[in-house]
User: What shape does this take?
Amino acid sequence: MTSGSINLSRNMGNVVGIAIATTVVTSTMSSRGFPTSLASMPADSDSGLLLAFADGVSSALLLFAGLCSVLIVLSIMLLKRGRQTDASPG
Assistant: This one.
């Protein structure tokens, strides 16, 4: 039962993370006036399209790095609070 819950939460995190990253990349590309699909890109295509895609991926990675940093700090704070509660006489 526990391993199923862990796998479910891991899979949900993957799905949500991919959806957010895709949204950031496609938003970056469309805001620069490029189509959001790379499937029909010819070999001699505009380098601006590739630059927009790379900037979108970079933005998504920075977003997730910031989110991870905030969550690490929150986790440390919660762990400290839990240890203080356990150590208090009562």
